[in-house]
Specification:
heterodimer; A: alpha/beta; four-stranded antiparallel sheet; 10 strands; about 25% strand; B: mainly alpha; MetI-like fold; 8 helices
Chain lengths: ~250, ~230
């Protein structure tokens, strides 16, 4: 499947401070095409900052981020790189003045310069993929949280990204709406999308991820397969954290 | 008592002069609005996106011009420059004086409308590969424009009514035209009522139109359930 050697995304020694607060203290990991990795860890440990650095919404202080042959931290064409990376946020970030369909079309028309008719076809296809053909003409304020997040996923997918980033995509949702978003993400994973997901949904992590990365205080404490992470975590901190999550969200295996 | 027929006849005869004054009033209003929108927009950009000294300047400007009575501003702009050897016509002084004030208010209206668009939408736009310029044009501006209409309608009404202060500088706007007629016909009640009616029509009519525009552009669902 791969048409080139080496990982799709390669992060080396990523560092970032906000003022005196060291948020990322030398983060390194990589992602091959088609791989799915989940980052877990206590809040405030820089998980979201890692994602924000990958498409340079936050500029790192040190380290390198390679998307194939392009180094993102130092590149001069960040708007082109961002088209290659889909980003789904906790807070959806839908454009309030546009219908679901228009939300998905905007990037195609204004960034990719796709002709309007083609953009519409592609946008409808993506909305169909996330099961939202019935709300094409609804505005964000008329949608449920789960629908909003699925529109946001369709909007990111429409750009045909090489990599999808998810930053706690279900954290702002009512419990009964989480499932529909996770299902869309699981399908994406099965279809071979490369994904990096920050989440507390251990069921999802266990079902689709190739590797789980446990982060704490700006460092990667442990990286391993979900089986190993859940059955016999090496680090005592990992064990403690997973135990707490179990208490909060139920067992990862379900 | 002046007979009703006499009053109606007076209004009929005065109408050309009053409408002449109305034209001047409308000209003043439009020019002051344009002045305020143009400089208010620049100031708002400076305050939201500019460097620190620019933000400071706009902040101080806004505080000063919101704290001086309009009439004092007009007198200052009209009688001030001649003592420095600069001549300014009453009409231009009225546009300048009220325009400076409108700039201060407009800049705050624009600032609020720019900031009304949530940062998550802006981040989402960036992550699609839209730069700052496209994000402003296609995400911030369309939403800011909708938020802008109600305070703009309000500001329009204020400016229209404030143009009557140009009376003090001798500009032949609606109120002064009325005074000329009163000086000859001596029926202040009738003439002032006619003037009040004209102001009312201009204010109410245009704010109504803007309300229609606002409703037409309303984003479905918002106001029903925010978020």
């Amino acid at each position: 499947m791969k048409d080139r050697d080496g990982p799709l995304l390669n992060i080396k020694g990523l560092k970032k401070s906000f003022g005196d607060n060291l948020v990322l203290d030398g983060i390194s990991f990589s992602l091959d095409t088609g791989e799915n990795k989940v980052i877990i860890g206590p809040s405030g440990t820089g998980k979201s900052t890692v994602l924000n650095c990958i498409n340079r919404l936050v500029v790192p202080d040190g380290g390198e981020i390679w998307l194939e042959d392009t180094e993102i931290v130092s590149c001069s064409n960040i708007n082109e790189i961002r088209q290659e990376i889909g980003y789904v946020f906790q807070g959806f970030g839908l454009f309030h003045h546009l219908t679901a369909l228009r939300n998905v079309m905007l990037g195609l028309i204004r960034v990719k310069k796709t002709p309007k008719n083609e953009a519409k076809e592609q946008a409808i296809a993506k909305l169909e993929q996330v099961g939202l053909l019935d709300v094409l003409d609804s505005y964000p304020a008329q949608l449920s949280g789960g629908q909003k997040q699925r529109v946001a996923i369709a909007r990111a997918l429409a750009m045909e990204p090489k990599l999808m980033l998810f930053d706690e995509p279900t954290s702002a949702l009512d419990p009964e709406l989480i499932g529909e978003v996770l299902n869309v993400m699981k399908n994406l994973a099965r279809e071979g999308m490369t994904m990096l997901v920050v989440t507390h949904e251990m069921g999802f992590a266990r079902a689709v991820s190739d590797e789980i990365i446990f982060m704490e205080k700006g460092k990667i404490v442990e990286k391993s397969s979900p089986e190993k992470m859940f059955e016999q975590p090496e680090n005592p901190r990992t064990r403690e954290f997973l135990f707490k999550l179990d208490e909060l969200y139920g067992k990862g295996g379900e | 008592m002046i007979l009703l027929e006499a009053r109606i006849e007076l209004i009929r005869r005065s109408l050309p002069a009053l409408l002449g004054g109305t034209v001047i009033t409308i000209q003043l209003t439009v020019l002051i609005l344009l002045f305020g929108v143009f400089f208010g927009l620049i100031f708002a950009f400076g305050q939201v996106y500019g460097i620190k000294p620019i933000r400071w300047f706009v902040n101080v400007y806004e505080k000063i011009f919101r704290s001086i009575p309009e009439l004092v501003l007009l007198l200052l702009v009209f009688y001030g420059p001649p003592s420095l050897g600069i001549r300014i016509s009453p009409f231009n002084a009225a546009v300048l004086g009220l325009g400076l004030r409108a700039t201060a208010y407009m800049s705050q209206i624009f600032r609020g409308t720019f900031k009304s668009v949530g940062s998550d939408q802006i981040t989402a736009a960036y992550s699609l590969g839209m730069g700052k310029y496209k994000t402003f044009l296609f995400v911030i501006l369309p939403q800011a424009f909708r938020v802008f209409i109600p305070p703009f309608a309000n500001e329009y009404a204020i400016i229209l009514k404030d143009t009557s202060l140009a009376y003090a500088l001798g500009v032949a706007e609606l109120l002064r035209q009325g005074q000329y007629i009163i000086a000859v016909a001596y029926d202040p009640l009738t003439i002032f009522l006619a003037i009040a009616a004209i102001y009312f029509v201009l204010t109410f009519g245009v704010t109504r139109l803007l309300k229609v525009l606002e409703n037409k552009l309303k984003i479905p669902g918002i106001g029903v359930e925010i978020g």
